[in-house]
Q: What sequence folds into this?
């Protein structure tokens, strides 16, 4: 029972963050009795990508855009993303990405490290791309984390970076 609580409470909900240019999420005081690390929450004010991308992600209201014009993604409002332990396509956008016809293999690298325990670091393999009328051109990588826990992601596309923390139950 205690182990289950420790794994599910590994990351505590965090207050919104506004500075996103590759900086780690700011530390916040313990929230709701959790002593884990903060997860990344919706920024205040919200990040709105430039046209032609939609002002909210396809998964809204359960997701929010996080990042800046150079690199952004959609994160869960809950801070919890269970599918990342099973295998998930992870979508990324950039105003600098010309689309899959011009850049079929985007120069996107995604890494993740577990903050609350031991686990091998994750590093994405070759990125690909996709396009849909609801979200325009995007880059994507496949993510399958080796264990549940609190994970800090770092992504880099060209010279633009982004970092955030999610809980993987």
A:
């Amino acid at each position: 029972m205690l182990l289950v609580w420790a794994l599910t409470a590994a990351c505590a909900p965090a207050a919104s963050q506004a500075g996103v240019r590759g900086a780690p999420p700011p530390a916040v005081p313990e929230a709701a009795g959790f002593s884990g690390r903060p997860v990344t929450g919706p920024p205040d004010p919200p990040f709105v990508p430039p046209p032609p991308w939609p002002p909210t992600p396809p998964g809204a209201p359960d997701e929010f855009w996080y990042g800046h014009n150079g690199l952004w993604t959609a994160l869960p409002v809950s801070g919890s993303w269970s599918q990342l332990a099973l295998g998930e396509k992870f979508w990324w956008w950039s105003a600098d990405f010309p689309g899959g016809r011009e850049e079929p293999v985007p120069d996107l690298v995604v890494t993740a490290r577990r903050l609350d325990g031991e686990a091998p670091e994750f590093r994405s393999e070759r990125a690909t791309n996709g396009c849909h009328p609801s979200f325009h051109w995007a880059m994507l990588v496949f993510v399958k984390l080796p264990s549940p826990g609190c994970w800090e992601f770092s992504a880099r596309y060209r010279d633009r970076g982004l970092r955030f923390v999610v809980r993987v139950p």
